[in-house]
Predict the 3D structure of the following.
Amino acid sequence: MHPQKKSSIKWPDILSPLITPAAAFISLVLIITAVSSNPLNTLYIFLTSPISNNFYLGNMLNYAGLLIISASGISLVFKAGMFNLGGEGQIYSGVFTATAVSIALSSYSPFLAIAGAITAGSLTGAAMGTVSGYLKMKWNTNDLITSFLLSAAVIHIVNYLITGPMGDPASYLITTREIPQALRLKQFLPPSKLNISFIAAIIIAVIYYIYLYRTASGLKLRTSGKSRLFAIYSGVRTEYFVTIPFLVSGLLNGLTGSFASLGTYYMCAYNCTGGVGWSAIAVSLIGRNHPLLIIPAALFISWMESGLSGIVLYSGFPFELSPILQAFVFFFITAKFFKKEGYGDRRHF
Amino acid sequence: MNILLKTEKISKTFPGSNVIANSGIDFELKENEIHSIAGENGSGKSTLMHILSGLLPQDSGTIRYRGEAVTFHSPHDALKKGIGMVHQQPGIVPGFSILDNIIIGKEGKCFQKIDRKKAINEIESINRQFGIEIDISRNPISPESRQLTILISLIYRKAEVIIFDEPTASLSDAESQDFFGIMKKLKDNGKTIIFITHKIETALSAADRISVLSKGKIKGTFDTDKTDIDSIADLIIGSSSGSVHGIRSGKRNSVGDIKVFEARDIVPGKSSNDKKGFNFAVREGEILSFTGIREKNLDIMEDLLSGFIQVQSGSFFYMGKEIKISSTRTLRKSGIKYIPSDRMGRGTSLTGTVENNLAFTDIDSFSENGFIRKERIRDFFNSGRDSFDIKAIFGQPLWQLSGGNIQKVILFREMHKAKKLLIFCEPSWNLDFQSREMIYKTILELRNRGTSIIMISTDIEEIIDLSDRAAVMHEGKIAGFLEGNEINSYNIGRLILGMAASR
């Protein structure tokens, strides 16, 4: 039926993670050329400002670390054949819980307070993820909708708590109180926020890779996601691979929030996460949901966001245009994403 | 009565299959008659009807309607002339009520207001005229109401000739009676009807004339009052005979007494009031086969045995102990091997690699402490490649393989470790002649080594060639068991058609 190929290497598969950033970059250059009075300088700032000093470099890496942890969670659910669109709310609630718990436990030893905060933040995210997963398993509820709506609702609950009961009346921001100095994660490259969470992120990505591609359970999860009927036929308890990926995904998002709280924001301010959860979905998609490709993808997105704030600050590039540039990248990712769906199954069947 | 519709030398071959579905068919339909079409699966009944209703173009030949040569490019063309077809499982617009499904496409111009009141009046008068009892505001539409929905919509569009494909296949007896009542009224009101069926009895009682198709040709057209069930059955069965494979199993008349697998009074879940369950046993080193039509017979048997349908009552016994087959997991854990008829959906992960497809059903034995031992999978892959001649490379995704090689992957996976029991559905599905021979030999070797095999197949020739005992299914029940030389196409054919086998 189909001609057999000598090797299974397919160039589109290898090149596609590179094509997206390249296409995004070219459109970026075109827009900068059109808008900026000094395109070369703007482009230079865009490319170099993220590594121009310790502050920018550290923050860029720190942000990439948060993206890696969250994107690992997002990709796990993708691999299991579902969607977790609730990353933003899971992270935000993680920030809130971790902040609240660390402040509440601040009279105990720092180790206990930090451990308690991270555990509580992670469990909050896990609880949210589990709800979507359980509903999917039990009644085949649309996971895309439950995860998104639950997250959207929780964001408002957190907003209410930090505006009212848990708010800091002394601050001019809508925020909780600040986390005491002793409980903040140590900065590796002061004054940047880079901390232990970046190393944790790399370790998580590697463990995730080993789980997905080296263990029987990982293969069962991938098969349940891609060929559910075959998994059932093979005796896999596919219902486990609905709830548990969502639980772990929520846990990782909650952990992202906890790290962000203790190492980056030191409080839970109104809308402080500002789209980390959404950027993590983009990271997961650029990295083709592959645990190790997520790392460069996160660095790319983080670099781009840092470079964009660089050109807004230093070259007078209009602030309003930077989200448009970001939108371009997202556009290319989605385009590629849908093309991938048609590749393989439909063409060859 | 004058001839309403006539075909002259209609032929149709499906590209790539070499199967001649229709070969020079001359068919005549008289005005205002009920004409039944009978024949085996694959005899070309549906193809002919699809050509008449504009769904398929014929390769050659002419259709004459009221004496005039017509060409249909689509079902819409045919309907404009007055020919409409009700398919076995008609498509409807989900989320639309019956009323909306009927008027869709006839609702008026783009921005014109839809005159539902007028449509409702018109449809209700149709329903009164033809004795159709249905609530047209109903939404969602139940599967049983789909055919009626399409029927009403055809009458609403002034169809004169209405073709039904197996109209009673998914209906209960009472519903079938209602349906034949409607059909009678259609005739009384001047409509002409063709219906495809495999139930000769109902064909003879409900139709004025009957045409028998076999291997793409018309074997004859008869007035139903001048023929009988046996001569029609002989005409249908008579054409298929003998072994084409050259393999004869050497039937085992004396197998051991050890019952490897047994079903006692098994009633499938969700089945109707009918409480008579399945009873059968397969003994050590025996091939017990099930045959019949697939829908509502063999598919139910397969799904029961593999846990895709739950048992309502009754019990299964494996090696003397009761087992509850709640999913295929039960089979996997007790070492029963199962090759599904849905090879591509159930049997494989097309996007997965060849070696993972081989190892996945038993992945825990290819791993240690939860980690996959790739070298074990590689060894297994190599032994499959060598012993079953699977043309594939380690690491290759399965979809790149040819259909036959994908088959071999599944067959090797399930057959190499089959010890006590193998459930084998449609053994020769999509295999070329040589691969077939190889599979048949492997089946017989397994049997001779003492493995019991439950074979579920619609291919009567391989049933005859391979099985030691055969259970023939009809209307969701086991119509009869055949043994040894009783397993021939005549007996099988009669049982499939709901008649007694001659011993």
Remarks:
- Chain A touches chain B at residues 1-2, 4-8, 214-217, 219-220, 223, 226-227, 229-237, 344-345, 348-349 (CB under 8 Å).
- Residues 1-8, 337-349 of chain A have pLDDT under 50 and may be disordered.
- The CA atoms of residues 264 and 292 of chain A lie 24 Å apart.
- Chain A has one domain: 20-338.
